[in-house]
Amino acid sequence: MIPDALFTVLIAVLGLLIGSFSNVLIWRLPRRENINFPPSHCPACDHALAPLDLVPVLSWAALGGKCRYCKAGISARYPVIELITASAYALLSVVFPFSQLGAGLIGLCLLFTLLLVASVIDQETYTIPDEISLPGAAIGLLFGLLHARPKDGLGFGADTLPVFAEAARGMLLGAGLLITIDLFGSWVIRRFRERSFPEAPLGFQQIALSLLAGAWLGPWWGIAAGAASAAVNLLARRVVRVPEWLTLGGTLLSLVLIGSGAAAGFSPGSPGSPGLIMMVQGALAAAGGMSLLCGLYWWLVPIITRQPEDDSDDYDASAMGFGDVKLAAMIGAFLGWERLVVAVVFAVLAGAVLGVLQLLILRENRLKFGPYLAIGAVLALLFGSQLVQAYRGLFGL
To answer: How far apart (Å, rounded) are the C-alpha atoms in residues 347 and 111?
Structure first.
């Protein structure tokens, strides 16, 4: 077996190469360009780059940060991304040695790359490409399928990646948590008015319906309820509205009733009455599953516009970008639901602190939450297990 120290060096070199490819993704994905063709070229003069022009970090330094052919400046972001990736890969291989984690280490490195690419694109364009988050969630599930806990107990880092069932749960709850925040936040921003431009056949109305149904019936029946509503839209060839006062209001009322019953000493776990925690998990998982179906549908069948084309105030305000929802699903698939919660907590704290600095320094009040989610995911990866264990110990769980 390759010694861990040697593997750290090898994976750092791999990080330089992957960082170079990450720069390609960061440039081409927002512009809807093919990532394979044409070959690498100068964005200023379109001249094809020779192999010596593509050596990570060294080519940029040797050329003085300028194109060999047209002398146009080359952004310092290129070597920075390469160095960040190499350093992160090396750090991960030290914290989670290959000899103990095996192929799981490759999964963690891939997660970091996806988070880095998504963060830079979100920072520059306010969007997170579906080509990153949706396949990333599927890859997280794949690593969960390949990952198995050792029979002789948990060694160092052996529980870093969740098994498939935990990865699927993390993916659904990750998407569900953020889409629920978006649903209720947007409802408040609209002053509890209904959406002016509901999507068809799949959209936020179906997600809200899944949220309510999932609370009472569980995640799979909740997803089925949302799918049934979409089928009705298809058959009617129009939007058959599902009012939010019923779905979102009903979800809140359900949680209040069950929660107050538990507080009053009644048994919320009696037949026909789910416990409060199970109700919340069922609601979030159902909403997360339906939101991922919506994301997949909108990726394959893009909706040209769901807002008015003029500058009027008649539009459906949103509390959170839908790209953040899919990014949270990817993080949950790789890390599991417990560390997903840790990642969201870290993201909120980072967003609160850095968001204020952004407002004061850049005078910009539009928050890009994707980079903060990425920061939270990395912190949850490094410290999440310890924090979860400390929380369990504190409350005797």
So the answer is: 16
165/305 Cα distance (integer angstroms): 36
How much is the pLDDT for 200? 85
Structure tokens at 157: 């880092």
Ranges of residues in the chain with a pLDDT under 50 are 1, 150-158, 263-272, 305, 307-309, 311-312
3-state secondary structure 299-337: HHCCCCCCCCCCCCCCCCCCCCCHHHHHHHHHHHHHHCH
Q: What is the pLDDT of residues 350-369, one digit of tens each?
A: 888 877 776 667 666 667 88
Determine contact, residues 173/284, Cβ cutoff 8 Å.
yes
What burial letters (b/e) apply to 22-34, b meaning 16+ CB within 10 Å? bbebbbebbeeee
Q: Which has the closest alpha carbon to 102: 155, 166, 152?
A: 155
Q: Which two tokens stand for residue 336?
A: 């599991």
Q: Put residue 197 in one of left, alpha, beta given phi > 0 → left and psi -120 to 50 → alpha.
A: beta
CA distance 166 to 336: 6
DSSP code of residue 195: P
Q: Which residues contact 13 (CB under 8 A, 6 or more apart)?
A: 86
Cis-peptide into 219, omega within 30 deg: no
**CA 336 to the chain's CA centroid:** 12
71's CB contacts (< 8 A; 6+ apart) are: none
Rounded Cα distance, 310 and 382, in Å: 46
pTM: 0.90
Q: For all residues of the chain together, what is the average pLDDT?
A: 86
Q: In 237-367, where does DSSP find H-type helix?
A: 244-263, 276-300, 322-335, 337-362
CB atoms within 10 A of CB 46: 10
Q: At 136, which amino acid appears?
A: G
How would you classify residue 396: left for phi > 0, otherwise alpha for psi between -120 and 50, otherwise beta? left
Cβ atoms < 10 Å from Cβ of 236: 11
The pLDDT value recorded for residue 102 is 79
Instruction: Give the N- to C-terminal CA distance of the chain in Å, as an integer.
Output: 39
pLDDT value at residue 364: 65
